[in-house]
Design brief:
The protein is 43% helix and 16% strand. The termini are far apart. By secondary structure, the protein is an alpha/beta fold. The relative contact order is 0.12. Helix 5 links the parallel strand 1 and strand 2.
């Protein structure tokens, strides 16, 4: 019987010999070691040797040497457009740091959240970022993270819970900025606040913050607050309530907490022959789906900066992984990012 001989594995020593440099130079180029000057000619020689010899870094050996896997896990729902926006920011930040990203989809069979701590204990990941709902605060998961001593950042979750680092959108600021934009021309009518919800969403941190900001703004400007709850599971009733509001005023200024509420207002305005941007001015305080440019007329909106939130979450996670900013980490800061005004023709 003839045994097939395995191909000898190419090492960094082979690369150094082929390039005519020392192994320390090869290591410096591969690791981007600061403070070690390597000329462009030597760098190119090493890169050429790596390509010609088909050299690959032994990630397991490297991980044992530096004590890191250089990989983080990101957990979320791939069906949500906001998760994809967040992932863009995470990928950009991790790419700049030479880190890999493991997608951990909760809908995949056997991929429950608790399995992330197992991956960390196996040293297959260095930390975890999750995209959560704005009212998410699971004490069991927080305790599991603490018990494993795993670097962790929640995006949107644990807004009012100590002990967990969170990157959050400033929903209060979004409403105040939106109302200031709507009233930049000294409009007289009091603003109608359409509070779109589904299930228990009205009780989440984001919705409470927005509602309180709306009431605060009205009190400051002497406006009469009018909150119109619209349940997305009872859309026909929501259409009727919006139609009554539009028909009762010759001029209506409408701010919706969600994009879906603003889109519904567009449809009702069409049905009641109200011109969006004129008889009824519409704005969304949360443009999660980034639809504003596709509507006619284009919609004014405050955009949740999920891409930026992903970048900031990576930075916060790396601080934990590297043991930096211990004082700040001890406080488990809640990092709030301002939302971005996207002007349109609807307001």
């Amino acid at each position: 019987m003839v045994m097939k001989m395995s191909k000898k594995r190419v090492t960094s020593f082979d690369v150094a010999r082929a390039a005519g440099v020392s192994r320390s130079v090869v290591s410096a180029i591969l690791n981007g070691t600061p403070g070690i000057g390597v000329g462009e000619e030597k760098r190119q020689a090493v890169l050429d040797a790596i390509r010609e010899l088909d050299y690959h870094v032994d990630s397991q050996a490297r991980g044992m040497k530096i004590g890191k896997s250089e990989c983080i896990a990101v957990y979320g729902n791939m069906d949500q457009p906001m998760f994809l926006q967040l992932l863009t920011g995470v990928n950009e930040a991790c790419g700049a740091l030479g880190y890999h990203v493991l997608l951990y989809n909760r809908k995949q069979l056997g991929m429950e959240r608790q399995g992330l701590t197992v991956l960390y204990q196996q040293k297959r990941i260095d930390g975890v970022i999750t995209l959560d709902s704005t009212n998410y605060a699971d004490p069991e998961w927080a305790e599991a993270v603490k018990r494993a001593e795993m670097p962790y950042v929640s995006v949107e979750g644990y807004a009012n819970e100590s002990g967990t680092m969170s990157v959050l959108a400033d929903y209060r600021q979004s409403v105040l900025a939106a109302l200031d934009y709507l009233y930049r021309q000294d409009s007289d009518p009091s603003p109608l606040y359409v509070e779109t919800y589904k299930g228990v969403s009205r009780e989440g941190d984001a919705e409470r913050s927005r509602r309180e900001a709306y009431l605060e703004w009205c009190a400051l400007h002497g406006a009469e607050p009018v909150i119109l709850p619209v349940d997305l599971d009872r859309e026909q009733e929501g259409r009727r309530l919006l139609a009554e509001a539009m028909e009762s005023r010759s001029q209506l200024i409408l701010l919706s907490n969600w994009t879906s509420g603003a889109v519904l207002a567009y449809r009702v305005a069409y049905q009641t022959a109200k011109r969006v941007g004129r008889e009824v001015r519409i704005m969304s305080a949360d443009n999660t789906y980034q639809l504003q440019e596709w509507l006619v007329p284009s919609m004014s909106a405050m955009e949740v900066p999920y891409r930026k939130m992903g970048q900031v979450a990576v930075e916060a996670l790396m601080n934990q992984i590297d043991g930096k900013n211990q004082a700040a980490q001890a406080e488990f800061a809640k990092i709030r990012l301002k939302m971005v005004l996207k002007p349109g023709e609807s307001a």
